[in-house]
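Lab meeting tomorrow. Please check the following:
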Amino acid sequence: MKLLLTSDFHFHRPWYDWLLDHGPQYDLVAIAGDLMEMHYPGGVVPQLIYLHTWVRAMLKRGAVLAICSGNHDLPSTAPMVVPHLGIDKESVSLLEEYAKHDHWLQALRRNHQITVDQDHRIIRTNSGESLMVSCAPYRADGQFLFREHFPPPWLLLHHEPPGGTTLAGLNTGNQALAEFVRKTPPKYVLSGHTHFSEMSDNAFHERICKAHCFNCRQYPTAGIRPPAPNVIILDTSAGTATWRFCTPDGTPQQTTVEVD
């Protein structure tokens, strides 16, 4: 099974276009939060409309999606719409669908065709491989209230990396998640939140007990961003995880670790 793992697009539309072209070839595309950008000058509504259209396009191309929320995906002080920007009738009905749910991600389930916050789903391939996927929501209070446990192989998505690890920055990381992973180890954990930095070692993989934890170290939102997002290709059959990333000068690179 080949999985494409990523996070923190912050509504950078060229990266969504890239994922639309490359994502469907994988058995699963997993995004660990921050699909939206709370400081987007166009407001919240254009982002919701675009993401609904993008998800629909991904599903039409046969993609399998799992998405958890991040801090930029929570309600914020950002305006819903910018004055003098119109909304067409089709979009109005779409916004009515969003309004039926506690969190906008839940409106993207598309009759449970994709996995979002609080969901659990078994992904199966034609070769007979299977993987349980769970999405844990981001909470502004820092709590991690996830209590479920599934036998391996099991992939858990949560926006913040486990606290006290090299995947988290000095002021980031979720200690409750780290404790959960130690006591109830999933096979794989995907996080984001802590971005690529020239001032850090940019670790993308760390093992906690039996769990292989990942952070794709997405390129920061400031400055010029590369044409492709940073991603991790997890090949469960080969037992490898390959981090594909760009250096600050735009040079594509990759590094691979073994995962048993």
Notes: The first strand starts at residue 2 and ends at 6. Residues 2-258 form a domain with the Purple Acid Phosphatase; chain A, domain 2 fold (CATH 3.60.21.10).
